[in-house]
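Contributing new records

If you add data, match the layout below exactly. Sequence lines come first and carry their own label; structure lines follow with theirs. Keep one chain per record. Anything else will be rejected by the validation script.
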Amino acid sequence: MNVMKITLSRSPAAETETECLAVVVLDRTPTDRSAKDKDKDKDKSQMSVETSEAAVREAASELIAGGEVSGKIFETTLLHRPAGLKAKRLLLVGGGKAENFNTTVLRKLAGTAARFLKPKGIASFAFAAPETGIDAVGAAKGIVEGAFVGDFDPDIYKSDRKDQTLEALIVVAQGNQDQLQRAIEEARIIGESQNFTRELVNEPSNRMTPTVLAERARKMAEEVGLKYEIYGSDKIKELKMGAFWGVAQGSDEPPALVVLRYEPSNAPASPVLGLVGKGITFDTGGISIKPADGMEKMKYDMAGGAAMMGAMRAIALLKPALKVIAVICATENMPSGKAQKPGDIQIAMSGKSIEIINTDAEGRLVLADGLHYARKLGCTHLVDAATLTGAVVVALGYVNAGVFSNDERFYERFGRALDNSGEKFWRLPLDDEYKESIRSNIADIMNSGGRWGGAVTAAMFLREFAEDTPWIHLDIAGTAWMEDNKPWIAKGPSGIAVRSLVELAKDFRS
């Protein structure tokens, strides 16, 4: 993991000595102008460099006046040897319309700056926090988080890989030094933890087996001071995790049950937040085998488990006064002579019987036992994360992840966490009528309700195992993997859910 040095500067941006100073440019053209006004003002620049420093604005003025800077979101314009500045370069990063500018946009702009500068061999830069629209503390946090996201690239196995990483970032911001420093340190921890998750998800399945994933969890836990337990097949059978074992039995790779515990001395006995992650290190679909097209991406089917590991890393370092227990169920889903078959009956740890309709609906099986086990360990609130269904991608595309909940108060708390994290989730229903789709004639429940409403019926299945415990289900199948390179983030693993889970834990109350 790249260790980027982050420093705070409360000196004027113009006085900052750096390889490059990045500033935000917003389009402040009124959107409600009449046609006559638009024609009258067509030659007038409406671009605003978001700083009160005259020297910085003056350095950018010629580019703006010449029309080279439009303020379009993610637009990058680099100026060498800017007059009046100590920075060697000035990078103008377009933030789009001023009325749409917020911390989420700023986070992406910081990532855009990082990704623009890295290929040019610029290993350190400064980013000036905008002085309008966002408070300085929130801006500093967003800049650091965004820079870490932008610094990650997935090409670690290329033989000609150029080691282009950011070595240092200066956050230029005005405000209370202690508050700014705390925000920057918190953002560094969260950014590193999100990238830790992305590193895990990026690994191919021959290098990220359940055993290796468990070992990475152990190593991380020792580094940050988490308690941990790692179990194999014998313990899974002893606990009567029949749903989990039903998936694991088809693979030659042994499964792993990972438990991570954050139990600070200043935390009350209750609440206890439980984080349950799907850790399918490769998903062939089992006997209900997937099509070959795109199957190589199924190494990312452990993104939910990896997100829980990243969240636990950040929580351990940020030290909220809350007990948190993570349960990660790791296995491969493989076809073999030992694999479970459609029509089989598995008995979950809770005692519920499950008719296996489709062996490719395996994530909900491992989570069923993971959720029940988390409750047995004393968790009073549950969040699970999983690349669970293709149906959520059909419903929401690659923009929003799906979220479900059986408890309004708990969901409202998660909504506040989303406001702070900037991650995009969209709530989907859990109406009782959907349960009819997963009723079985031979067992208590089926593991698949068919094609229609597939994300919802999968969540209904999991609700059976959360029972009356306040619970949130995150279906991240469409957002855990970026399908294309974006200005602020590389194609590949996104690390979604880490920031939201950390925000949830930071200020958690029963």
